[in-house]
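Here is one chain, start to finish.
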Amino acid sequence: MDYRFLGRTGVRVSSLCFGTMSFGGDAYADTSATLYRASRVAGINFFDCAIVYSAGRSEEILGSLIKGERDDLVITSKCYYPVGSDINVRGGSRCHIANAAEDSLRRLGTDRLDVLFIHHWDENTPLEETLRALEDLVRSGKVLYIGASNFAAWQVAKAVGVTARMGWTGFDVLQPMYNLVKHQAETEILPLATSEKLGVISHSPVGGGLLSGKYATSRKGGTGRITDDGVYSVRYGEEWVFETARKFSDLAIAENLHPVSLAVAWVRSHPAITAAIIGARNVEQLKSSLAAVDIDMTPECAPASQTCRARRRRPTTGWRKAETHERIGSYSRAVTVSGSAAISPRTHFCMAERCVRIVQ
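Its structure:
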């Protein structure tokens, strides 16, 4: 395991962060404990949580596991989404943020959160109110650093401007989605983070299971979030997405790698990424993600036959229906495993529907 500075905080975290969404849900308490111990043995000191995970049960389980080594760990939580039936237990209001932070501290059994993320942009609450509520938590010592999860770049930039103008604590960490298929974060989020020296811990490196290999032969290759969860079905429902998953799986298998390991290694290797958030329902799943640290990504360009190209699709409404292909040539990574020849799942982004094709 290697350790990286979390933006400009001076805090060093493992380049893999364990996401505890499964705690109390897909993973019962005993399985959660096994996953936690395996993560610690692997060198992970970074654990991501949220008040909404398993209706708070995730934080309770994590809190019971970190006793005795709390000061050796970096613990995050997130607030925004509803955690009860009351109309005010949601959003980015001062009322909700203050109460949510207190609830997180109680469930985790700790006196501070290392990072508290606002989990989503709140269009119904003035940004100044949200940021002042976070500033007050930092001043009280209950939160050390603050971050934004699932924000657009313009929203982060606006927040940076407000906190700079008011002299408040600004965001130190961002948490965007980022994987081989959904990598629009490369367009503005990651360059912004680099410019502002913000840490980035990205979620969904395996695309909700899309890049795990289970869809290598069919989009109905197994049960999971993509088949069982409507949000994921929409997010990853297009046919080109499954074609990419099939080709990516073939590439990984050809190099004797588990697709999950390669998918996580690809995310982890981006220079703007501090840590990739990994998750698991069981230890076998976790092992594949942990193996990503043994895959070295190198910057050499790959042969033309192994490049990815981006297909730009223009919107059909108000436009002549057309498709163009273009190569965006600045960003590529090759994989070197145990001294073998370099191969490359070379990927680029496009501005519209971000269709990525692995050309073998």
